[in-house]
């Protein structure tokens, strides 16, 4: 247990701090190699881990590729400008609409897509609007939070969703049926709590005349109008895939490559540059860190967790759901939600309560917001903002996250009961 824990903690430290530009995926792979060399895991374990995460990872890459192509043609900037214009210059309405937009994009293009694409766009627009630094930070904190708290409704909305759905063989339609209400509750409660906490930093009026006309940012209007029916058909294909038990990555990655081909035909993007821009480090991160985490499973950590979860399951259904969600949330806040969701999935495997798998997802999606290193999306969000000149310290973020996350998490978990 000591060796497996040490390898995990050192790997996680390198993933978070990225010394001398060492990327998070590379750090995870190095940790996996050490786990393999030191006997914490074996080659069979590597095969098992790969079988668990391959679909989630390829689906994620597909969603990000599609997002990048849409970003190239101005799709997300058009949405952001429409959101701002719709507010009619009311700062509080703009705050609410920006979070609704973040919720929509997080649901359809995954939490990491919302962070990588929407954050720079919103930041650029807020600077054009000449908003004060504290207002910009308020909008960005809220946007970063909603990217994870709203990543619940679809299997593809978060890597944790895909991993858990695949692990427990949950179909696309069944998943949506259970998680749609928690998604709506999470979005509405998140907006309400975030507004209460940050309202003093939101201006009453914003000069939206400084912004461009939304149609002026479209780089290819034909492809833009084509994108809407294409995404509708792609969304429908997930239900077809569900009926025939096809991997979600078949449609997510296949659809992205098809749209990339269409965009190339219209000369709306450079395919090689778009593929190169995709966050391939996530692939190495997923496989590498999961191998390291599997070493913790071999050392018996999941056995301890199973005992705790079994004890919770003997209590009322509400206690079992809330308890499981908060355990997942605390683990995610401490050691990142990617390893946490896998550890919890393994621990829950033999417990006869399917609702606890969904509680695990909710805990692993919202819980990470309590710390800056709780999720990959937050790490990417902080990295994107730092490159744009906006820096939020560890304690500043943690105070915010610890204040807003627990009440939202509790209410969302109760909506699952």
Keywords:
18 helices; mainly alpha; globular; 417 residues
What are the SSEs and their pairings?
Elements: H1 2-17, H2 24-37, H3 43-72, H4 75-86, H5 91-128, H6 133-149, H7 159-167, H8 172-198, H9 221-243, H10 248-265, H11 271-277, H12 281-298, H13 301-313, H14 317-335, H15 337-348, H16 355-366, H17 376-387, H18 394-416
Structure description:
With 417 residues, the protein is mainly α. The chain has one domain (2-416). It is 77% helix and 0% strand. It has 18 helices and no strands. Helix 2 (24-37) packs parallel to helix 12. The chain starts with a helix and ends with a helix. The model has no long low-confidence stretch (mean pLDDT 90).
H/E element string? HHHHHHHHHHHHHHHHHH
**What proportion of the residues is helical, as a percent range?**
over 70%
Largest sheet: none
Total number of beta strands? 0
- What is the overall shape? globular
Measured between the Cα atoms of the first and last residue, the distance is: 35 Å
**Count of discrete structural domains:** 1
Helices, by number, come to 18
Low-confidence stretches: none
The structure class reads: mainly alpha
Cα radius of gyration in angstroms: 21 Å
Strand content: under 5%
The overall average pLDDT, rounded, is 90
């Amino acid at each position: 247990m000591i060796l497996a824990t040490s390898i995990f903690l050192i790997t996680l430290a390198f993933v978070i701090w990225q010394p001398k530009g060492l990327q998070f995926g590379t750090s995870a792979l190095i940790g996996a190699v050490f786990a393999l060399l030191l006997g914490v895991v074996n080659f069979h374990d590597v095969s098992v881990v790969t079988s668990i995460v391959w679909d989630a990872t390829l689906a994620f890459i597909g969603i990000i590729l599609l997002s990048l192509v849409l970003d190239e043609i101005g799709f997300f900037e058009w949405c952001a400008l429409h959101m701002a214009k719709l507010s009619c210059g009311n700062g509080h309405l703009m705050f609410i609409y920006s979070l609704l937009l973040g919720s929509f994009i997080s649901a359809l293009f995954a939490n990491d897509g919302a962070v990588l694409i929407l954050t720079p766009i919103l930041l650029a627009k807020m600077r054009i609007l000449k908003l004060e630094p504290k207002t910009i930070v308020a909008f960005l904190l809220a946007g970063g939070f909603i990217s994870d708290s709203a990543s619940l409704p679809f299997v593809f909305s978060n890597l944790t969703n895909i991993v858990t759905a695949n692990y427990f063989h949950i179909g696309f339609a069944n998943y949506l049926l259970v998680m749609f209400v928690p998604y709506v509750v999470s979005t509405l409660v998140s907006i309400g709590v975030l507004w209460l906490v940050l309202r003093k930093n939101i201006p009453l009026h914003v000069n939206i005349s400084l912004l461009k006309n939304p149609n002026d940012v479209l780089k290819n209007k034909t492809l833009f109008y084509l994108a809407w029916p294409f995404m509708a058909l792609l969304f429908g294909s997930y239900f077809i895939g569900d009926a025939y038990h096809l991997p979600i990555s078949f449609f997510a990655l296949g659809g992205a490559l098809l749209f990339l081909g269409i965009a190339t035909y219209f000369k709306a993007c450079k395919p090689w540059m778009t593929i190169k821009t995709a966050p391939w480090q996530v692939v190495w991160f997923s496989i590498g860190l999961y191998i390291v985490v599997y070493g913790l499973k071999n050392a018996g950590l999941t056995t301890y967790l199973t005992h705790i979860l079994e004890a919770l399951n003997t209590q009322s259904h509400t206690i079992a759901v809330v308890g499981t969600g908060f355990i997942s949330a605390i683990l995610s806040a401490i050691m990142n939600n990617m390893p946490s969701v896998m550890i919890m999935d393994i621990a829950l495997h033999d417990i006869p309560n399917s609702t606890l798998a969904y509680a695990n997802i909710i805990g692993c999606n919202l819980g990470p917001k309590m710390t800056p290193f709780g999720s990959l999306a937050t790490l990417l969000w902080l990295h994107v903002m730092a490159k744009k000149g906006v820096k939020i310290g560890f304690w500043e973020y943690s105070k915010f996250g610890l204040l807003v996350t627990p009440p939202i998490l509790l209410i969302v978990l109760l909506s699952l009961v």
